[in-house]
Design goal:
Domain YiiM-like triple helical: 169-209
Protein name: MOSC domain-containing protein YiiM
CATH class: Mainly Beta
GO molecular function: catalytic activity; molybdenum ion binding; pyridoxal phosphate binding
CATH architecture: Beta Barrel
Number of domains: 1
Organism: Mangrovibacter plantisponsor
Distance between the termini: 44 Å
InterPro entries: Benzoxazolinone_Detox_Enz (IPR052353), MoCF_Sase_C (IPR005302), Pyrv_Knase-like_insert_dom_sf (IPR011037), Tri_helical_YiiM-like (IPR005163)
Length: 226
């Protein structure tokens, strides 16, 4: 299957009352260079938790915006790509049919799915919805991230094409294991076995297995400890 894609990049901006962010992106057209760290002209704030080789690109399904608009009708106008700061927007690919480790061909490049996108508190500020990050996490409408397996030129008129599937774990299942289930060492082992899983998620799951505890999500979801 081939999936037409819209492409977006953005730079870091200051937001009074919140931290700097590159969530505001604009559509690109034509030929772009895709490097191991992402698209030319794209930036990430706080690179310790955003960006890097395992999080070079963010993909968000276009069809999710209709569901968010129905949930928040008074803000329906803001729910359209690339409102969640995604680089790639498609119809037909969702967390339920995209798997950890999936390799897509795009232009002259290959990209691989590494993890669900972990929603953070900046989304609450950006949309003016106090618990939006929590709702994204609970619904599993989170999108996903890629590493760049083979960098090169990409073209906004070229579709994404799935060329290899190396695990049985969907992005939705990965999110459910990490965020929705109580501590379950067997499920963590299952997710850790998914080829292509990001180093960050591998580290988090291994820590849970060592400590027998799930970390507190409060700082990521609300910007503070519980």
């Amino acid at each position: 299957m081939r999936y037409p894609v819209q492409v977006y990049t953005g730079t870091i901006k200051d937001y009074p009352g919140s931290r700097p962010s590159a969530i505001a992106k604009y559509q690109r057209e034509g030929e772009l260079l895709l490097t191991p760290l992402g698209l030319e002209g794209d930036s990430q704030a706080e690179v310790g938790i955003h960006g890097g080789p395992d999080r070079a690109l963010c993909h968000y399904p276009r069809e999710h915006y209709e569901a968010w608009a129905q949930s928040f009708p008074e803000q329906a106008g803001v729910f359209a790509p690339p409102a969640l700061g995604e680089n790639l927007s498609t119809t037909g690919l969702t967390e339920r049919n995209v798997h950890i480790g999936d390799i897509f061909c795009w232009g002259d490049t290959l990209i691989q799915v590494t993890q669900p996108r972990s929603p953070c508190f900046k989304l609450n500020f950006h949309f003016g919805i106090s618990d939006f990050s929590r709702q994204i996490q609970e619904t599993g409408r989170c999108g996903w991230l890629y590493r760049v397996v083979s960098p090169g030129k990409v073209y906004t008129d070229k579709p994404l094409e799935l060329v290899s599937r190396v695990s049985d774990i969907s992005v939705y299942q990965a999110a459910a294991i990490a965020w929705h289930m109580p501590f379950d060492d067997e499920q963590y082992h299952l997710l850790l076995s998914a080829a292509g899983l990001s180093a960050s998620w591998t580290n988090t799951l291994q820590k849970r297995r060592l400590t027998g505890k799930i970390e507190d999500f409060s700082r990521r979801l609300w910007g503070k400890k519980s």
